[in-house]
Design a protein that fits this description.
The chain has 200 residues and is of the alpha/beta class. Helices cover 31% and strands 31% of the residues.
Length: 200
C-alpha cells in the first residue's frame, strides 16, 4: 500500500479527535473584586451621638448591571472582562463602600444599606444615582454620581449635588483601576460626610 495515502487516511480518521484536544487547556480562573477597601476606611471619628445613616437606594446604568467589570467609555465604547468580575452586586457593593466611609468619618456605627434589613431609625438618608463608572486601564478611572441628602422623616431633599471624580491608575492592571475607583469612593465619602455634618 502506498505510504502517502495511508498517512492521509490516518490523519483524516484521527484529526477530528486530535483537533478538539489541541484546543483544550486549563481555563484562566476568574478573579473577583470589590469596591470596599478596608485599608482606605478612615479611623473612626469621635462619636456623633444619635446619628444614623441609611445609604441608598443606589441606581447604576444598565451597562454596569453585570458581574463583568466594565472599562472604557471613550466614544461610547466599552470593554467587558470575562476574567475580572465583581464579587457581588455592584450597587450594593458601592453602597457598602460608601457606608463604611461615612461610618468612619462621622463616628457612627449606625449605618445601614437600603433596603434596611435591621432595626434602624435613620436621621439621614443618602440616595445615589451613578452616572458613570468608567476609564481606560493604565489611564484614568472616572466616577460620576448625582447624590441627594434626604430627611427620612419628612422625605424632603435637603440638597442634591453632582460629583465627578478622576483618579490615575498606577498601571494597566485591573487591580490598579479598581484601586483608583476605591480612591474615588473615598473622596466621594468625604464630600457626603461634610454635607451631613453641615446639615445638623
Amino acid at each position: 500500500m502506498n505510504k502517502v495515502p495511508f498517512i492521509l487516511v490516518c490523519l483524516l480518521l484521527t484529526g477530528p479527535v486530535l483537533l478538539p484536544l489541541a484546543g483544550c487547556g486549563p481555563a484562566s480562573p476568574q478573579i473577583h473584586h470589590s469596591l470596599y477597601a478596608p485599608d482606605l476606611v478612615p479611623h473612626p471619628a469621635p462619636s456623633s451621638g444619635r446619628m444614623a445613616i441609611l445609604v441608598g437606594p443606589v441606581t447604576i446604568p444598565d451597562l454596569l448591571k453585570t458581574s463583568q467589570i466594565v472599562t472604557g467609555g471613550a466614544g461610547g465604547r466599552y470593554q467587558l472582562s470575562d476574567r475580572h468580575r465583581w464579587a457581588g452586586e455592584l450597587d450594593r457593593d458601592l453602597a457598602r463602600a460608601i457606608g463604611e466611609q461615612l461610618a468612619g468619618k462621622l463616628g457612627t456605627e449606625q449605618v445601614a444599606i437600603y433596603p434596611v434589613r435591621q432595626p434602624l431609625k435613620p436621621t439621614h438618608q443618602i440616595i445615589l444615582d451613578v452616572l458613570a463608572m468608567e476609564g481606560t486601564l493604565g489611564k484614568e478611572a472616572t466616577l460620576a454620581v448625582r447624590w441627594s441628602l434626604v430627611d427620612p422623616d419628612s422625605r424632603t431633599t435637603r440638597l442634591t449635588r453632582r460629583t465627578v471624580l478622576h483618579e490615575q491608575s498606577a498601571d494597566s492592571s485591573y487591580d490598579a483601576w479598581i484601586a483608583a475607583q476605591q480612591r474615588n469612593i473615598g473622596r466621594l465619602g468625604e464630600e457626603i460626610a461634610a454635607a451631613i455634618a453641615g446639615s445638623k
